Protein backbone atom coordinates (compact mmCIF):
# COMPACT_ATOMS: atom_id res chain seq x y z
CA UNK A 1 0.00 0.00 0.00
CA UNK A 2 1.25 3.45 -0.81
CA UNK A 3 2.19 5.85 1.94
CA UNK A 4 -0.16 8.75 1.27
CA UNK A 5 -1.13 11.62 3.54
CA UNK A 6 -4.46 9.98 4.29
CA UNK A 7 -2.93 6.62 5.22
CA UNK A 8 -0.33 8.40 7.38
CA UNK A 9 -3.06 10.39 9.12
CA UNK A 10 -5.11 7.24 9.79
CA UNK A 11 -2.06 5.38 11.12
CA UNK A 12 -1.17 8.28 13.42
CA UNK A 13 -4.74 8.53 14.71
CA UNK A 14 -4.78 4.80 15.42
CA UNK A 15 -1.50 5.07 17.31
CA UNK A 16 -2.76 8.02 19.36
CA UNK A 17 -5.99 6.17 20.15
CA UNK A 18 -4.13 3.07 21.31
CA UNK A 19 -1.91 5.22 23.55
CA UNK A 20 -5.01 6.97 24.91
CA UNK A 21 -6.62 3.63 25.77
CA UNK A 22 -3.64 2.43 27.81
CA UNK A 23 -5.13 4.18 30.85
CA UNK A 24 -7.14 1.54 32.79
CA UNK A 25 -9.89 4.02 33.76
CA UNK A 26 -10.59 4.81 30.12
CA UNK A 27 -10.70 1.09 29.38
CA UNK A 28 -13.17 0.48 32.21
CA UNK A 29 -15.32 3.40 31.07
CA UNK A 30 -15.50 2.03 27.52
CA UNK A 31 -16.42 -1.42 28.81
CA UNK A 32 -19.14 0.13 31.00
CA UNK A 33 -20.47 2.13 28.05
CA UNK A 34 -20.59 -1.09 26.02
CA UNK A 35 -22.54 -2.78 28.81
CA UNK A 36 -25.10 0.02 28.85
CA UNK A 37 -25.34 0.12 25.04
CA UNK A 38 -25.95 -3.63 24.99
CA UNK A 39 -28.74 -3.15 27.53
CA UNK A 40 -30.23 -0.28 25.52
CA UNK A 41 -30.17 -2.14 22.19
CA UNK A 42 -31.69 -5.27 23.75
CA UNK A 43 -34.55 -3.33 25.32
CA UNK A 44 -35.12 -1.53 22.01
CA UNK A 45 -35.08 -4.79 20.07
CA UNK A 46 -37.47 -6.45 22.50
CA UNK A 47 -39.95 -3.60 22.30
CA UNK A 48 -39.76 -3.26 18.51
CA UNK A 49 -39.93 -6.99 17.76
CA UNK A 50 -42.62 -7.59 20.37
CA UNK A 51 -44.85 -4.81 19.08
CA UNK A 52 -46.00 -6.60 15.95
CA UNK A 53 -45.31 -10.16 17.20
CA UNK A 54 -44.77 -11.33 13.64
CA UNK A 55 -41.03 -11.81 13.54
CA UNK A 56 -40.33 -12.86 17.12
CA UNK A 57 -38.74 -16.18 16.18
CA UNK A 58 -36.51 -14.62 13.53
CA UNK A 59 -35.36 -11.86 15.89
CA UNK A 60 -34.69 -14.33 18.68
CA UNK A 61 -32.72 -16.56 16.30
CA UNK A 62 -30.52 -13.62 15.32
CA UNK A 63 -30.00 -12.70 18.97
CA UNK A 64 -29.00 -16.26 19.90
CA UNK A 65 -26.60 -16.55 16.97
CA UNK A 66 -25.01 -13.18 17.80
CA UNK A 67 -24.61 -14.13 21.46
CA UNK A 68 -23.05 -17.48 20.58
CA UNK A 69 -20.65 -15.88 18.12
CA UNK A 70 -19.62 -13.33 20.74
CA UNK A 71 -19.08 -16.10 23.31
CA UNK A 72 -17.08 -18.13 20.83
CA UNK A 73 -14.90 -15.12 20.04
CA UNK A 74 -14.33 -14.11 23.66
CA UNK A 75 -13.83 -17.55 25.21
CA UNK A 76 -11.91 -19.26 22.42
CA UNK A 77 -8.46 -20.65 23.10
CA UNK A 78 -6.75 -18.27 20.72
CA UNK A 79 -6.02 -15.94 23.63
CA UNK A 80 -3.57 -18.44 25.12
CA UNK A 81 0.00 -18.65 23.97
CA UNK A 82 0.47 -22.38 23.24
CA UNK A 83 4.26 -22.34 23.57
CA UNK A 84 4.46 -20.54 26.91
CA UNK A 85 1.04 -21.57 28.27
CA UNK A 86 0.38 -18.05 29.47
CA UNK A 87 -2.53 -15.78 28.83
CA UNK A 88 -2.17 -13.13 26.18
CA UNK A 89 -4.14 -9.97 27.08
CA UNK A 90 -7.34 -9.60 25.11
CA UNK A 91 -7.83 -6.53 22.95
CA UNK A 92 -10.22 -3.85 24.14
CA UNK A 93 -12.80 -4.49 21.44
CA UNK A 94 -13.14 -8.11 22.58
CA UNK A 95 -13.91 -6.94 26.12
CA UNK A 96 -16.42 -4.43 24.74
CA UNK A 97 -18.19 -7.12 22.69
CA UNK A 98 -18.41 -9.37 25.74
CA UNK A 99 -19.70 -6.52 27.87
CA UNK A 100 -22.38 -5.64 25.31
CA UNK A 101 -23.42 -9.31 25.21
CA UNK A 102 -23.72 -9.41 28.99
CA UNK A 103 -25.78 -6.21 28.98
CA UNK A 104 -28.09 -7.59 26.30
CA UNK A 105 -28.56 -10.87 28.15
CA UNK A 106 -29.41 -9.01 31.34
CA UNK A 107 -31.89 -6.80 29.49
CA UNK A 108 -33.66 -9.80 27.96
CA UNK A 109 -33.91 -11.42 31.40
CA UNK A 110 -35.41 -8.23 32.85
CA UNK A 111 -37.89 -8.03 29.95
CA UNK A 112 -38.87 -11.65 30.53
CA UNK A 113 -39.51 -10.95 34.21
CA UNK A 114 -41.64 -7.93 33.26
CA UNK A 115 -43.71 -10.06 30.88
CA UNK A 116 -44.10 -12.81 33.45
CA UNK A 117 -45.46 -10.57 36.18
Automatic annotation (TrEMBL):
**Residue span of the signal peptide, if any?**
none
Q: Where are the transmembrane segments?
A: 28-51, 57-75
Q: Does the keyword Membrane apply?
A: yes
Pfam families assigned to the protein according to its UniProt record, in alphabetical order: DUF565
Keywords (alphabetical) are: Membrane, Transmembrane, Transmembrane helix
Can you tell me which family this protein belongs to? Answer: Belongs to the ycf20 family.
The protein in question is named DUF565 domain-containing protein
The species this protein belongs to is Shackletoniella antarctica
Amino acid sequence: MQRTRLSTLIDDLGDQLSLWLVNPWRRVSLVLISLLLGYFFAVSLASIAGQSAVQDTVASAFVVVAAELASWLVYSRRWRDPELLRKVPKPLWIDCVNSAKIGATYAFCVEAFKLGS
